[in-house]
Structure prediction request, 211 residues.
Amino acid sequence: MTRTTASPTPVDALITDYNGVPGRQPTTAMWTHLASLAEWPDGHLDSFQTAFWAPRQAYDAGELSDLAYWAQVLGHHPGPRLLRTLRAADTAMWMHTDDHILDILRRARERGLPMTLLSNAPHCLSDALDATDWRRELMTEALYSARLGVCKPHPAAYEQALRATGITDPGRMLFVDDRADNCDAASRLGLRTLHYTGRPADLEAALLPAG
Prediction:
């Protein structure tokens, strides 16, 4: 169920997560492909995902290099060619976007709403997202954990995003994320929040109120 602390009063700016909001979650086929590239045993996708996520926060925060991250996932150092292959496949599976959400964001942007992207993402994904047309078109600022040196839900991530907007009153900001813990952390700092659970109408109502 979508949970929001946003009121009908218009907001002055939006801070939005990427994956799970405009970014689509990877499919099982994408995960299986990445596991195959990593030479993971067939039929053990769950254990691959466990290994993938275990060091991910440190990777997203910029504390691990590509090599160090994949060495922890695999249990051994990949060679240069395999590392490039894994990095490219990993990045690619997070690049798919929801056209309906992008349309809502475009309409809000046309109304003059400034938007900041705040995403937990490693350097390679950050660079790829920055190169997309939609990011350059819609986002006034784009902040990524690997560049900030901290991941959501740490308060410093939100504080840096607030500074980037130039708006001093957090109550005039709307923060949107698909994770409840990230929304809870933003709410504790005074931001309005929308816990996005896959219903575009909820985002549309928050950003494009009637009238």
Q: What stands out?
A: The CA atoms of residues 187 and 193 lie 6 Å apart.
